[in-house]
Amino acid sequence: MRLDVDIKSGFFTSREVADGLGISLRTLKNYRDEGRIQYHKFSPRRIGYAKQHIWAFLQTTHCSFYMKERAKKLLQESIVKYNSSD
Question: What CATH number does residue 25 fall under?
Answer without folding.
Answer: 1.10.1660
